[in-house]
Amino acid sequence: MAHLLGAESLHLENPTRVIFDSVTVGLDAEISALDAQTAELESRWLVLTDLLEN
Questions:
Q1: How many domains does the chain contain in total?
Q2: Which domain holds residue 41?
Q3: Could you read off the pLDDT of 3-42 as tens digits, one per residue?
């Protein structure tokens, strides 16, 4: 899978134990597009409610 933003083979440990040894995380384009659409809808909702209140 191709990621819009991501990292592979992340390793995190503290002095007493390993938290994770080899983790891949990523944000793909579909999630990013959905977040942008949600932000646009929220913006439109705020404008609409402001118009209705005034």
A1: 1
A2: 5-53
A3: 467 778 888 888 888 888 888 877 766 666 677 778 888 8
